[in-house]
């Protein structure tokens, strides 16, 4: 498999982390999204929405959207529960991640630590951070009662939420206010076959 | 089942439309989100994220996030494909809907037609509408080649995307630029057991 990706992306890292936990090998093809490399005609032919990551299967099929790739790769593994109510809980947290969490936690990090600040971004920063703290508070409340988000074990719900939470401080968030979240981050980082977000060992030209 | 909802919400309407297409009865409990009724202590006890819709099952379990409710209700029906690659395509479009479509198409509609405009909202409107048009263009490109988003038949991917697309003009979007999208909207509105977004026949006190 080839993962079309941008190394600092938490959305890409979700897939890299799951692939590593599953013990699956892949190649990482890098695009500098700050330079617009995910908007080229070539890239738009593999994802018309112009966003990394895109998972390319061995047979040449392409799958865009990080949480769709998590879903597909996790089938028939412990990271996707068998019970349909638990599956629905996983989808709930994947939706929460894409709607309430990622736009408010990933964007400040991207602006402050990667792409640079602009007046239009600065005007949105305080509101994004307020909503990002609200998302972290929802996670804290949930993780006070259980070690993982669904089914008392590590699933793709945790992997999806881990990706941008563990680097939230790069977006100006103080995680010390969320002790249950910090404990959960620690549990994930101790998994066997864990890889860090900047691991580029799968990188190809 | 009880759907905790706000009648103009496209996110709630997704679930109402699927329930109707499935021929399932339910009761609709209404919250005026403009008045903050989804932020009360009572509401937060059923969804700590403070957002409608929430599906309440007959046994008292609660499920937040509209696309999670679609996933759960569609199990073992024609609206959720059996093939895992097709399932991943559905999840891809549900993710696209929550990340690239809904925030850019639903928010302008909510501001212009329901909640009212504020200076902070006005400052974001042009950018939202630009990104909303980009999402509609991605849909148009896909629907030029096929009648439905996945598996050549109506699935929850279509239902999720239909909800806010069919009322996009309330957010200032001109759908006449997207003939394939308009044809697809028409195919969905012709389904047997179709209900409109303002159908309040399930409403309870």
From TrEMBL, chains A, B:
Which PROSITE patterns does the record associate with it?
Answer: GST_CTER, GST_NTER
Domain called GST N-terminal: residue spans: 1-81
Mind telling me which InterPro entries this protein's record contains?
A: Glutathione-S-Trfase_C-like, Glutathione-S-Trfase_C_sf, Glutathione_S-Trfase, Glutathione_S-Trfase_N, GST_C, Thioredoxin-like_sf
CDD domains from the entry? GST_N_4
> Where is the GST C-terminal domain positioned along the sequence?
83-205
Mention any Pfam family matching this sequence: GST_N
> Family, per the entry?
Belongs to the GST superfamily.
Q: What is this protein called?
A: Glutathione S-transferase family protein
High-level lineage: Bacteria, Pseudomonadati, Pseudomonadota, Gammaproteobacteria, Alteromonadales
């Amino acid at each position: 498999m080839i993962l079309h990706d941008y190394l600092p992306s938490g959305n890409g890292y979700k897939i890299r982390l799951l692939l590593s936990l599953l013990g699956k090998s892949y190649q990482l093809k890098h695009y500098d999204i700050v330079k617009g490399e995910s908007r080229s005609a070539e890239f738009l032919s593999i994802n018309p929405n112009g966003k990394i990551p895109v998972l390319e299967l061995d047979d040449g099929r392409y799958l865009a959207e990080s949480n769709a790739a998590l879903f597909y790769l996790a089938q028939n593994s412990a990271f996707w529960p068998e019970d349909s109510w638990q599956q629905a809980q996983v989808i709930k947290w994947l939706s929460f991640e894409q709607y309430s969490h990622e736009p408010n936690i990933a964007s400040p990090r991207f602006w402050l630590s990667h792409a640079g600040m602009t007046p239009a971004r600065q005007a949105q920063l305080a509101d994004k951070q307020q909503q990002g703290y609200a998302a972290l508070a929802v996670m804290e409340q949930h993780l006070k009662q259980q070690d993982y988000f669904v089914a008392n074990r590590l699933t793709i719900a945790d992997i999806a939420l881990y990706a941008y939470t563990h680097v939230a401080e790069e977006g100006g968030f103080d995680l010390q206010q969320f002790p249950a979240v910090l404990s959960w981050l620690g549990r994930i980082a101790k998994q066997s076959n864990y890889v860090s977000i900047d691991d580029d060992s799968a990188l190809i030209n």
